[in-house]
Structure prediction request, 490 residues.
Amino acid sequence: MAQARRVGLLACVALLGGCGGSSAPKPPHGGAVLRLSLPLVPTTLDPARVADLPSLNVAHELYAGLTRFSGPGVAPDLAESWEPSENGLVWTFHLRKGLRWSNEVPITAEDFRRSWLRALAPRTNSAYARAEMQNIRGARRYRVTGSGEVGVEAVDDRTLRVTLQHPVPWLDEQVAWPVFFPVPKSGTATSGPFRLASRGKRRLVLERNLNYWNVEAVKPRRIVLTTFPPAGDGILPFSLAAPGIPWIQSANAPPAGFGRRLPTLSVGLLWLATRRGPLADPATRRTLAAVLDRRILAAEAAERPVRTVVPPAMPGASRLKIPPAGYRVETGPLELTLAYTPEDVRAANLPSQIQSQLARRDIRVTLLPVSFRRLLGLAGPPPKVDLVLLGWSSEFFDEYNILDLFPCASAFNVAQWCDRSYDRLMHRAVRALDDDERWAIERTLVQKVQDAVPAIPLYSASEYVQLRNGLHGFRWSPIGFYELLGMTRS
Prediction:
């Protein structure tokens, strides 16, 4: 049952090593100094403004939220527990006793309320406030106008009440995103496992924050982050593209034998234009899905093939598997245009491989390179384009986040496919607080997408990390967040 899964106290041991307050025993001042490589040094550490994946991860180490990503879910962080109301519209979060910023000032529920309004304010121009905070009552209007009532209330110093526009079963996951983290009224105090010791163009130094509530779990004394390739203790994941927007492979596949392969919630998709041209016919779209060899296409991206839009690392994915349909292959002379972005570095050979495979079926494909920025600005395929290579990476652990690409009004519905019965089911799914009930609805949604073929899933994407021998304690969430607080040498 979803309600039982979402009570914060049950997850205390998952990542953070206990639920003690700031009075818990603190570690000695010793500990390793770790030197790790990033693809870039963040230009901003403001949790409301960070947008690329490395910046989100560094902000995630400096600041803390109500919850914290831990494997395939979240664990309590500054909140020791939480509970949704019976109808799922009101969530109440209970902060730990004695929370303090790195400068000793107490952290209160009002810090969360003030910081959330700041993130929503138009002048902040926060990408993730637009992506993650819009389900809060009044948030949409406030983000546009900077005024109006918003459903966030500091009931007292340790109680935060959040009122939603409609039920959201995964709010405890959304508040783990840095955009929901509190920031101090002034200064550079932090609330997370580390504080900022120094900052340069190519180097960041983080030091253990002795006021973090779970400081006994923070093993490194200091972490030095530099841009690749300086040698160090490890190379952190190299992708730049963050979840929640149309996604491309922004990091090259590593050499054979490089480090550990890490699962993600990212899926490479081939979109099919459904409003016009030859692919307006569902039978023709099914033919393309049947004749493309996804094993070869996935291998071109150094990834693993998938049969549905649901990535294998998603909780519940095994329950949403739909057997592949045995469509009749009826090919004939066709001329199609495929748009792709050359910035999709790991999938650079996919367009020509698709072109080659379809040519064997008398389907001629013209390749059209388009900038990633242009693709992002389109609600559908560019004019005279039939196929678009553009993936998606989920922001939370539910299939709904990927299935939400396909409603009629979705800004990211590249195929411009529209099925009103699909939209009605999505309306039901987001209001189903019980996981089993929601997965049953989502299985029907996956079936509809598979039958209509607005997009062909090609591969599930991976990340990679390389750590020196003897270094351990690195933790990874398929959302794309890593955890450095437990890293140490044996």
